[in-house]
Amino acid sequence: MNKSQSVILRELFAFAMGVLLMTVISSLFFTDVSTGIGDFSLNEQAGSLLLHVNSLIEKAFSLTQSTLNTSTVIIADMPSSLVNQPYSLTVIDNELCLSTKSLSECINLTVSASVNGSFSSSHDLMITGFLSGNTVFLVIDNY
Q: How many C-beta atoms surround the C-beta of residue 63 within 10 A?
């Protein structure tokens, strides 16, 4: 083998090692980093959605308190999924809880009403309120 052939083979080998190294680094980056970004995004979206629904419940509460002998209904557009995961909302022991296949998060409701019901993604949210005596009853459901 002459000197020019060994130079060419050395350069080809160095190029192949560079391609292999870039492939390994990029596959590690996309696997580990994208999972971390997805988890972070899911937590942020879940927290924002819980606060949004809590504010809708507060609005339904105040509207129901201010009306007499009438039920109130609020219908809200909701995201069909959170980071490509279906989700559900439930009210348990005065806590509004959001659940996906990889997350469960709850916040305390800020209204002094009897709130119950559940909601699943891919629908609009309906909050129905009615007043009985001095007690406000609110129900969350799919619309």
A: 16
Domain span including residue 60: 3-142
Measured CA to CA, the distance from residue 15 to residue 6 in angstroms comes to: 14
Residues in the chain: 143
Cβ 118 vs Cβ 89: under 8 Å: yes
Q: How many domains does the chain have?
A: 1
Phi, psi of 84 (to 5 degrees): 60, 25
Which tens digits make up the pLDDT trace of 119-138?
A: 999 899 999 999 988 889 99
DSSP state of 85: B
Per the listing, tokens 């999972």 go with: 35
- The answer to whether residue 60 scores a pLDDT higher than 80 is yes
Q: Evaluate whether 64 touches 136 at the Cβ level (below 8 Å).
A: yes
pTM of the full structure:
0.76
**What's the CA gap between 71 and 118, in Å, rounded?**
19
